[in-house]
Design a protein that fits this description.
The complex is a heterodimer of chains A (about 325) and B (about 375). Chain A is α/β, with parallel strands linked by helices. Helix content of chain A is about 35%, strand content about 30%. In chain A, β7 (about 160), α6 and β8 form a beta-alpha-beta unit. In chain A, α3 (about 95-105) crosses α4, α3 packs parallel to α5 (about 140-150) and α4 (about 110-125) packs antiparallel against α5. The longest helix of chain A is centred in the last third of the chain and has 17 residues, at about 300-315. Helices cover about 65% and strands about 5% of the residues of chain B. Chain B has a 4-stranded mixed β-sheet with strand order 2-1-3-4, with helices on both faces. The longest helix of chain B is centred in the middle third of the chain and has 32 residues, at about 170-200. The chains are: A alpha/beta (about 325), B mainly alpha (about 375).
């Protein structure tokens, strides 16, 4: 197909018995793009990634990764990609250096290339001087960078990161995303799954999966534009649940969702003002502390997309 | 075969740092050899013997001396009456009684076969049979002292001769079984645990994402264990030769071939278990049931297969240790060459192929 695309997915499906884990999804990922893959557990993210990595055969449809058909040449795909999972799958009883050498051995790296790439991984992970430390003695953030380094040893043009920041402190997470941005600038394509929506904001494009289907796909800005005509207000009330119930009963409110101790209400149009809402709530005996328009977050988008997908599925 | 050596070297490094696996591979086999080697001994020594010599001749005294000299009997009493004999046996002071009748020497002198009476406490049938065996052997070889004369007519008409293990020492019979048993434990458990551990920790998934074939991964994974358990098995044999007088009558190459074939099958069994079990606990239990019990019970290690019900004999055809024992005893005790051993070796080879094929099918599905 196209050489400008790192990944091309066309009506890809995977069945497990009668269960359709992935249902005819199609999308492209451009070279150098950071592509976010979102969805609840069981939405089909992992199954999709396993197919794209050549680990699981598609039941139907096709996918090309770096120009290689995943169904026909899974081993060819494996040579071209890097993979790092949420568990930072390192050998705990091996040292930093031994883990690097093992990963290099899996991809057949030897001699000068091995020395070169080993130096790269140590440098990138800030692991110089830690070569002889056992992997299990490294703090989470360091382990994560070591795992990423191991996944990049063979200089793959596409890397798959499966929840790479799970269980890592916020500072390390930010540092890790700086590494991802760096990779992308050098032309490496990054497909990343995450549960952290603040991380997803940093992706060039985001796909949201629900029940095996692509429920939404686009840039973060484009996904948020759905709220241009449906503004969101944040309601701070003494009793958020009572406020939610009252808001749901109003014709001007499309839907509500709980955000921590506040309630986000999606309005049906731009005519309704915060003051009107506040008055209406007060009439119903809800004590409102504050009510402000807010910019939509990716979390609003995510919940909205899932809601709509479920309505469509139920209809 | 990219990755085979990477996996093998990584595995060796892990084993070096993993005390549990090292213990299973190195310490446990030696420990078991001594534990079972000394505990599992069906020989009976120092049987307390009462002797009533009613003949009182040099010939009869020579016979008594033969019993006293042997390591199997300790002469503990010389009862005068039958009532005393009863009392000695009832109290357990004597487990066996030898009664030499009047006229023993005369019958011998006339070229006849004098009868002696032997009473054995039969409360333990196994012991009684063994003791009876010792008595018979001693009576046949009795020198009859000063006369120096063997009777023309045999004392007993049957002259059994036990080959390869003339003294019927049970260690010689048991040690090959022990080697099979111990090798099976170490090989099956260590392989199963090492692969299941990778599943548990998620490192397996990582390796599967690399362009490494299942064959290379499995070979790289099992090769270090093959070498280590080969070394372990040979060490047990060497220790058995030193400490348990195990003879080594055959060819070391034949021995090496038999051990290697057996271990490949055992490692394959461990591999197969690892494709079924998802946690180390389950793997350990499965290994115990699949590998240890049949090896202990259905291999001919302790219980002769020929005396088992036919159904169990059929089942035992699936137990690789059965063939290994035949081969091992053949090599070590009989000095047989490959021309006699090939059916056992072929059976072990078929078993190994079968478990690897089954594992490959299971791995491909995952």
């Amino acid at each position: 197909m196209s050489t400008t695309h790192a990944i091309v997915v066309d009506k890809l499906s995977r069945m497990f018995g009668a269960f359709r884990a992935v249902d005819a999804i199609s999308f492209d990922v451009a070279r150098g793009e950071v592509f976010g893959f979102l969805g609840a557990n069981g939405a089909g993210k992992s199954t999709t990634i396993r197919m794209l990595c050549g680990l699981l055969e598609p039941s139907s449809g096709r996918a090309e990764v770096d120009g290689v058909d995943v169904g026909r040449d899974p081993e060819g795909v494996k040579r071209r990609i890097g993979y790092m999972s949420q568990k930072f799958s390192l050998y705990e009883r091996l040292t930093v250096d031994e883990n690097i050498r093992f990963s290099a051995g899996l991809y057949g790296l030897t001699g000068a290339r091995l020395a070169d790439r080993r130096a790269f991984a140590l440098e990138m992970g800030g692991l110089k001087g830690k070569e002889r430390v056992l992997a299990r003695d490294l703090p989470g953030g360091w382990r994560q960078r070591l795992a990423l380094g191991c996944a990049l040893l063979h200089e793959p043009r596409i890397v798959f990161l499966d929840e790479p920041t799970g269980g890592v402190d916020p500072v390390s997470r930010r540092e890790f995303w700086r590494l991802i941005d760096g990779l992308s600038r050098q032309g490496t394509t990054v497909l990343v799954t995450t549960h952290y929506l603040d991380e997803a904001e940093r992706c060039d494009r985001v796909a949201i999966m629900h029940a095996g289907r692509l429920a939404a796909l686009g840039t973060v800005a484009k996904l948020k534009s759905t709220f241009d005509t449906r503004p969101i207000v944040e309601v701070r009330a003494a009793n958020p649940v009572q406020a939610m119930t009252a808001l749901d009963a109003m014709p001007s409110v499309e839907k509500t969702s709980l955000f921590g101790t506040t309630v986000h209400a999606v309005l049906r149009g731009q005519e309704t003002t915060a003051e009107e809402l506040s008055r209406a709530l007060a009439e119903k005996g809800v004590h409102v502390e504050a009510i402000d328009p807010v910019l939509p977050s990716l979390e609003d988008v995510f919940l909205d997309v899932i809601d709509r997908a479920e309505e469509a599925g139920a209809a | 075969m990219t990755g085979l050596w990477a996996v093998a070297i990584k595995e060796l490094r892990q084993i070096r740092r993993d005390r549990r696996t090292l213990t299973i591979l190195v310490f446990v086999p030696t420990f078991f050899l001594f534990l079972y080697g000394y505990a599992l001994n069906f020989d009976i020594r120092h049987v307390s013997l009462a002797v009533q010599d009613r003949d009182g001749t040099p010939e009869s005294r020579a016979l008594v001396a033969d019993f006293a000299r042997s390591a199997y009997f300790d002469v503990v009493a010389a009862p005068e009456s039958d009532r005393q004999i009863d009392a000695l046996v009832d109290r357990g002071t004597a487990r066996a009684v030898l009664v030499i009748p009047v006229g023993f020497a005369r019958t011998l002198g006339e070229g006849g076969s004098p009868a002696v009476q032997v009473l054995i406490d039969g409360d333990n049938a196994n012991t009684a049979t063994t003791v009876l065996g010792y008595v018979t052997a001693l009576l046949q070889s009795a020198s009859f002292g000063a006369t120096g004369e063997r009777p023309h007519a045999a004392l007993v008409s049957v002259e059994p001769r036990v080959w390869y293990n003339p003294e019927l020492r049970s260690t010689v019979f048991l040690v090959p079984g022990l080697i099979a048993f111990i090798s099976m434990i170490t090989a099956v458990i260590s392989t199963a645990l090492s692969i299941v551990r990778e599943k548990e920790r998620g490192t397996m998934e990582q390796v599967r994402m690399a362009p490494v074939s299942t064959t290379a991964f499995v070979a790289g994974k099992t090769l270090p264990y093959l070498v280590l358990s080969q070394a372990g098995a040979l060490a047990i044999i060497a220790a058995a030769m030193v400490f348990f007088d195990l003879p080594m009558r055959g060819n070391w190459l034949a021995l090496f071939v038999a051990i290697t074939l057996f271990l490949i099958g055992a490692l394959g069994t461990g591999l197969f278990i690892s494709t079924v079990a998802d946690t180390q606990d389950v793997a350990f239990q499965a290994a115990a049931i699949v590998a240890l019990l049949p090896t202990l019970i259905l291999s001919g290690f302790i219980f002769p297969l020929s005396s088992m019900p036919v159904v169990l004999q059929w089942i035992s055809a699936l137990v690789p240790a059965r063939y290994f024992l035949v081969a091992l005893r053949g090599i070590v005790l009989k000095g047989l060459g490959l021309e006699f051993l090939w059916p056992s070796l072929a059976a072990m080879g078929i078993y190994a192929l079968a478990v690897y094929a089954l594992s490959a099918v299971r791995l491909a599905r995952q």
